[in-house]
Design goal:
Blueprint: E1 8-14, H1 17-36, H2 49-58, E2 65-71, H3 74-87, H4 91-96, E3 100-103, H5 115-126, H6 130-138, H7 145-148, H8 196-205, H9 208-227, H10 248-262, H11 270-273, H12 277-287, H13 296-302, H14 306-311, H15 314-324
Antiparallel strand pairs: 1-2, 2-3
Protein name: Acyl transferase domain-containing protein
InterPro entries: ACP-like_sf, PKS_NRPS_Biosynth_Enz, PKS_PP-bd, PP-bd_ACP
Keywords: Phosphopantetheine, Phosphoprotein, Transferase
Length: 325
């Protein structure tokens, strides 16, 4: 079989200089391991240059701090990223290696791109001038990557190390009451959530809307646990697993918990096919059979739509749930 020798632009961005350098270092290490030690990288066979490029160019948000280069293989992409890390802070030296690093706070190209812009970028790609495309993107030129590389439409995205996000907490410290005034009463901790067979039994008795809410709470707790979230904080339900910072090891840990607690064995590709908590909850809910007990309370809850359930007070919702389970 003929080797794929196509050249592509490899583009990475970050919210600040440190996150960009960290992302380049993590990505270089990951791509290098995928080739040198494939056993250490989940789905290493899927880490091809077109899949990597599609994930970076078409499926990630663009931030102000940018670096771009070109590569014709995964190995070359990893080598270019390592070069960036070693020369970060020296744009002239980077440019000599075909690596372009700029910060685009506000691009002169911020206005909507027109047909001329798109045609020019497409012509550069057709002529094989990928370095010029990398240079233009780095300074803020609007590039429609789906049009530049139409062959990527058939490529499946691949897991890559996520952009590092700041998870510093910005909650104010608790107010200290004036001298002589009693401290406010402590809030009693919430009762522990059901796990294992108890959770599975609860889910089977719930109507679909409540089942999904309970599954969402469960997944948030499991993911927050493996990612080390502080008490009282939970991961967002609309953010991709990999953007939350999950690795293949984290995914396997959560998958094992799902098998144990829900008696559901997700397919190996389930996290890719349903890449957020919201989407994965739908997937799990469809695989958990509802109980058919004919319980009248369950029928009452089943007759409520999602808006009506959301409008219930915490007391009413707890009472109804208690009657069901």
């Amino acid at each position: 079989m003929t080797a794929d020798t196509r050249q592509f632009v490899v583009a990475v961005s970050g919210r600040d200089d440190d996150s960009l350098t960290t992302q380049a270092r993590d990505l270089a290490r990951y791509l290098g391991d995928a080739r040198r030690e494939p056993a250490r990288v989940a789905f290493s066979h899927a880490v091809t240059l077109p899949a990597v490029v599609k994930t970076l160019l078409c499926l990630r948000e663009t931030h102000p701090h940018r670096l771009a280069c070109t590569a014709g293989s995964v190995e070359e992409a990893a080598d270019r990223l390592r070069t960036y890390v070693s020369l970060a802070g020296d744009p002239r030296a980077l440019a000599q290696h075909g690596i372009y690093r700029t910060t685009v706070d506000r691009s002169v190209f911020d206005e909507p791109d027109d047909a001329g812009d798109r045609a020019y970028a497409a012509r550069l790609a057709a002529e094989g001038r990928h370095r010029q495309l990398a240079r233009l993107w780095a300074v803020g030129y609007p590039v429609d990557w789906a049009r530049i590389y139409p062959d990527l439409a058939g490529e499946r995205p691949v897991y890559l190390p996520p952009t590092r996000l700041s998870r510093r907490r910005f909650w104010p410290d608790p107010a200290t009451p004036p001298a002589g005034e009693p401290a406010p009463p402590a809030v009693e901790p919430a009762p522990p959530a059901a796990t294992g067979s108890d959770l599975l039994g609860d889910l089977g008795d719930l109507p679909d809307v409540l089942r999904r809410q309970r599954l969402g709470d469960y997944l948030q707790r499991q993911i927050g646990l493996v990612l080390g979230y502080p008490d009282g904080e939970l991961p967002r339900t609309d953010q991709g697993f990999f953007d939350l910072g999950m690795t293949s090891i984290h995914l396997e840990t959560v998958r094992s918990a799902i098998v144990r607690d829900l008696a559901v064995d997700p397919e190996p590709s389930a996290a890719f096919d349903h890449p957020t908590i919201t989407e994965f909850v739908r997937y799990l809910a469809d695989r958990i059979e509802p109980a058919t007990t004919g319980d009248p309370t369950g029928s009452v809850l089943a007759g409520l739509d999602e808006h009506e359930i959301d409008s219930l007070s915490a007391t009413d919702l707890e009472r109804l749930l208690g009657e069901v389970v």
